[in-house]
Amino acid sequence: MTWTMDMQQGWDSAPVSHQAEPWNQTYDNGETGEARFSKHDALTFKLNADIPDKPFFTQEINYSSIQDRSIIPEPEDIFEEDAPQEYQQNSTYSRGFQPLPNIPVNRVNGSYESAEEYLYTHFELMRNDLLIPLKTAVRSYKETVNMNKNDPSYADHPEAQPIRGFRAYEHVKLKSLVFSPRHVGYRISFRLPYHVRISWPQSKRLIEGTLVLLSKDSFEKDIKIATVVERGEEPVRGSNRFEYLITIHLERDNENDPLGFGDPTLSTEDKYVMLEATDGYFEAYRHILSTIQKISPSELPFSPYLVDVSKDVQLPHYAAMKRNYDIAEYRGGKRSGPAMPVDITQAWPKYRMAMDNTQMDALKTMLSNNIAVVQGPPGTGKTYVGTYAMRVLLNNFSTSIGPIVCICQTNHALDQFLEHILDYEDKIVRIGGRSKSDLLKDHLLYELRKQAESVRGIGHLYRKRDDIQKQITKIIAEMYEEPCVTLDYVKKINGLNPIQRDYLGRLAAYEEKRANKMASAKAKIDDDGDDWVTSTPSPTPPPAPSPRSRSRNGRGRQQKGRGGGRDDWASGNPNIQDPVETKEINPIEIWLKDAIEFVGPSSSLFTYTDQLKEDLLDTQQGLVFEDDMDESDLVDEEELREIAANFVEEPDTRKRPMIHIGSGYQKKRDQPSVVTMYDMHVENKRPGAENERKIINYKKIQAPRTLDTSSFNFFEDTIDQSALEPQHYVLERWMKEEPDVTMWPLPVRLKAHKKWADLRYQEQCGALRNLMREYEEISAEIRRLNTRSDARLCRENRVIGMTSTAAAKYHDLLEEIKPRIMVVEEAAEMMESHIVSALTRSLQHLVLIGDHQQLRPQSAVHALSEQHFLNVSLFERLVRNELPFTRLSHQRRMRPEIRMLIDPIYNDPPLRDHPDVLQRATVRGIDESVYFLSHNEAESSVADTASKTNEHEALMAAKLSTYLLLQGYTPEDITIITMYSGQKSLIKRSLRAERRPDLDPALIHVSSVDGYQGEENRIIILSLVRSNAAGQIGFLKVANRVCVALSRAKEGMYILGNAGLLCERSDLWNEIVGNLEDNLKSSIGTHLRLRCTRHGVPTDVQWPVDFATIPGGGCTRVCDETLRCGHKCTTVCHATDHKDMHCREQCRRVFSDCNHPCTRQCWEHCGTCLTNITARLPCGHEIEGECAKIRRMMLNAACMRCPYNCART
User: Fold this and answer.
1) Which SUPFAM superfamilies would you find in this protein's record (predicted)?
2) pLDDT in tens, 317-327
């Protein structure tokens, strides 16, 4: 075999050497210089011969440019036409692609030229990992829309449609402004395409922190970029069953509109489409990119190792004055045994500890190296050594050294790590997200804040922010309740000359006089019909003034000016009405009366016909954008909580204040409003229409005042065409030639008012922008004060735990805490930028614990991982560049035959077995503890996705799991893992189909390989899925994932897959299968041998139907085992214990008082005798019945009654 060579280039992830590819040469030989970037970026100054005296060169890299780069994508970034075709087509794993242009390559071998280049490289890699999926989503959406327009049958052929990188949402409208703790957000409504069904609780669609793109022209020119702020477990339902509501924050708007979606006071509303990319999660990028931007190259922590890859490790600075440590175990602050002094700079004495030699070496490395790297293969106890090193540091240093920061990749791993520390140290703070651990519940920063003193100086900031909220509300109310500008505003902007304004003033006076006359006439009619009031309601005392209603001089505001109020006795008199506050007449409203309409919260202007058209359009588009079967959309509840925990800072159930916008706007009223005479006769407003609002319909055209209707044809336009000529409605002409504005036609009036309203709207928008900016600034200042308070809380504790995402998010808090020691667990799974963004300037000691031969960091863009090495962690890069590190070598998890599966990966030095694993139990009911059950059953593809399924493997996994449960294992003892999300869903369905009254296989945990990193279980069933004629094995060629998949089991490991295909397409699998064939000949084949634990009878299974012959988990014989009662078990052989079985034989016991045998079944309680007997009564009659009843009656004379009612009884 040629495994050694292939292994270095395959599972160790070094690309195959191609002499014609300079980037590969750079990776292989570690050269520096222009080969660092792709040929499009190389610096050249060659003169162009065709253009004399004009030097020609490609882009020169300005490393400091990242300081000015926007983290939020620019519109031009999204519309750029250079998205990599490789990413658009498929996430292939071939290595034949060049690096993407204008994107730097991570320098895996060798040093960087400078800290500036280092920061620039990782910033650009992360930013493009965010950006490329967004560009692909927009391009894919536009192509899908265009294909549907050009070919209406496109939706009927889903097999011809490419895998899309987007999820689409239609009919997006602005509903409300929401005042959140950080900024003013937008509550929007959207509708899903028809036929799309979503299980929201398990869906990662629109989860908090997702970046979404919105456009009203299908992304031709218009684009808005926003983040989802609030979705909840399921989006709130809107006004109909198709509508959902979420809250977003508008990050970037090409129209720079503070209301986000245009002027919502108009009669028509813009409708937007919203997209989200299927790959990438923005919240994970935002804080990392922001932190990298803030890092000064001259202050980059551990720069000699990160940039120059120096091998010269030193003592941590804080440990230079204290080299002697006591490494003995402490519990409750007291040493549990004799002291174990060591000098961390010298060789250590040999103490009797529960550690092997490599673990002791790792402990010394962690304590003595300022940057310590410890590799822990599966089951070698790297977490144990890491927590023990922390215990030594906490025991040997006082609180003056500051808290130790622990960082893990996931919340679950962090909880486990902190729970280990909690055994000996209770001063722990867990920052960020939500913990599921009951032990850590009281250690959450959120809970500790409740016990701390209130932050000084923060109250006035909250009051100031509340005032801004009121000002924003006032401006919004003015926009909606006063759509017409005032005459004073027209004067202010000089919109009309004085004469024209005078005509408008006269119009107002005339209308006021007319309204009063009409009101008086109506009042007279009403008075004639009034009846005398025969009863007077009792006066109602006025409400007591609130403390806020009192003025500063102590006088209340109950009394008005002299003569300005009513006595209390008059408040109950029906003949004395409350004076109605008459609103001032706006002459502009009278002037535009014919164009003013009223709409309610339901937008009455939107007709049923329009709704029907949109529904039909949705039905059509639903076929194009159908993606309800997208398995990548579904995630485990654990994963969803993991994502949400990284976004949500703390539990907050408070209801956010909001202002309804658009058609949903409602006036806020303290009391029911009264429709005045002015409203009825001037505004034509109906009583009971309090919730309606005025809008100006700028599309309305006034008909001529006189029209000959004698020959009117409904279908022909008989309006005077001269009055409709464009030049007839030129505003400038009327402004200049006609001083009497009441003579202007309605279209001209609307043009004039539209011009004034736009100016007023711009002023209002400017005011809103300033207020919103001030709102965010105050919110940021509140967070800064809280950060300082949180830092004081954290410094009072000894251990601080957080995830890598939280470390970047709370980087300002870490800088304020000024830690000296940081321990990073799962370091090989984190991108280098994640760790760099967690480092602080005060840090003196960095401990990295992980295993780069297990899971690598995951990026959204596969090309960036493969060609730009974004998936190479800092941990792996330091190991590659020969920084001193320690590798643990004794595994304590797997039986030796299971460990043998990963020998090809850990061969130098080989992984050794701890004596404890030799005592692991064998699996009951199966001959082998390790078995590769090979088959040739073909896989299937999940529609519209790259996911795969294999029904044969899913059924076999479910049947085998059920069989193991019958052997006495619990669902917690078994885990089924696979590399494909589609297969995971299929296995879960298969397990549900196996449910029985006596056991429930659906309780067995089914996980992805990536999601099961760091976990273990007694029995693992691995479904490999891939089996096809094309020879494609996908994820199975990635050695890191294979390593994780094969190293999770402690007692039993069962693999379902196509062994022939794997050996043909992968040298790694060829080596693994070869080891099984050479060393464990009976551990691979097409039939799995089960064995009855009672009779020793074997049963070979190859197909799911084969399990039907042994429904009880035993064999086909009769059980025939002697039960406790002495009978033989007559059921078909079963694996379950007899203690819960019921013996159906006749009971052998005899009643001592009557000597009758018991007539019940053996398993039943004997109770009383049921044998029928005949007895003679004293009267001579005979009775028949149960023995116990007859005997009881005969012994009790009072109960002895003859059933024949004879005279003697």
Assistant:
1) P-loop containing nucleoside triphosphate hydrolases
2) 999 888 899 99
Q: Which amino acid is at 282?
A: F
Across 847-873, b (16+ Cβ under 10 Å) vs e yields bbbbbbbbbbbebbbbbbbbbbbbbbb
Segment holding 989, helix H or strand E: helix 981-993
Task: Evaluate whether 135 touches 78 at the Cβ level (below 8 Å).
Answer: yes
Are β-strands 243-253 and 1088-1091 bridged in parallel, bridged antiparallel, or unpaired?
unpaired
Which one, of 856, 878, 875, 877, lies nearest residue 865 by Cα? 856
Mean pLDDT, the chain, integer: 79
Which of 197-206, 529-538, 1042-1051 tops mean pLDDT? Answer: 1042-1051
- Three-state SS sequence of 755-801: HHHHHHHHHHHHHHHHHHHHHHHHHHHHHHHHHHHHHHHHHCCCEEE
Express each pLDDT in 954-972 by its tens digit.
999 999 999 999 999 999 9
| Residue 737 three-state SS | helix
DSSP state of 670: S
Handedness of CA 1027, 1032, 1034, 1040 (dihedral sign): positive
Only one residue has tokens 């994820």, namely 1035
What phi and psi values does residue 849 have, to the nearest 5 degrees? -120, 130
CA 198 to chain CA centroid, nearest Å: 15
DSSP string for residues in 59-77: PPP-GGGGGT--SSPPHHH
Phi, psi dihedrals of residue 767, rounded to the nearest 5°: -65, -40
Show the tokens assigned to 152.
């209406």
Residue 1000 burial (CB count, 10 A): 15
Q: Could you give the angle at the alpha carbon of 33 between the alpha carbons of 31 and 38, nearest 5°?
A: 95
514 half-sphere exposure, CB direction, 13 A CA radius:
13
Residue 901 pLDDT > 80: yes
Residue 303 has a pLDDT of: 96
Region 1044-1050 average pLDDT: 96
Whether the bond between 904 and the residue before it is cis, its omega within 30 degrees of 0, is no
Beta bridge partners of 1054: 931, 1021
Q: For residue 505, which phi and psi values (nearest 5 degrees)? A: -60, -40
SS3 662: helix
Partners of 890 in the β-ladder: 912
Position 639 confidence tier, pLDDT thresholds 50, 70, 90: low
What distances in angstroms separate CA 134 from CA 221, 282, 384, 562, 624, one per listed residue?
15, 10, 42, 68, 20
Contact yes or no for 343/323 (Cβ under 8 A): yes
Token duo for residue 1165: 């309680």
- Going from the N-terminus, what domains does the chain have, and what CATH number goes with each? 3-133 (no CATH), 155-290+606-664 (no CATH), 893-1094 (3.40.50.300), 1146-1209 (no CATH)
Q: Report the alpha-carbon distance of residue 808 to residue 802 in Å, rounded.
A: 10
Query: If you average pLDDT over residues 243-252, what whole number do you get?
Result: 91
Helix and strand totals (H; E) in the chain: 32, 37
The helix/strand/coil state of 84 is coil
Amino acid type, 29: N
> What confidence tens digit (pLDDT) does each residue in 389-417 have?
999 999 999 888 899 999 999 888 999 99
Q: What is the pLDDT of residues 184-223, one digit of tens each?
A: 999 999 998 777 778 787 788 898 899 999 999 889 888 9
Which of 97, 122, 118, 128 lies closest to 32, judged by CA?
118
On whether the CB atoms of residues 949 and 942 are closer than 8 A, the answer is yes
Q: What pLDDT digit, counting tens, does each position of 756-798 carry?
A: 999 998 899 899 999 999 999 999 999 999 999 999 999 999 9
Distance between CA atoms of residues 663 and 243, nearest Å = 15
The region of weakest confidence among 18-32, 186-200, 711-725 is: 18-32
Residues near 745 by Cβ (< 8 Å), separated by ≥ 6?
702, 723, 728, 729
Do 293 and 69 form a contact (C-beta atoms < 8 A)? Answer: yes
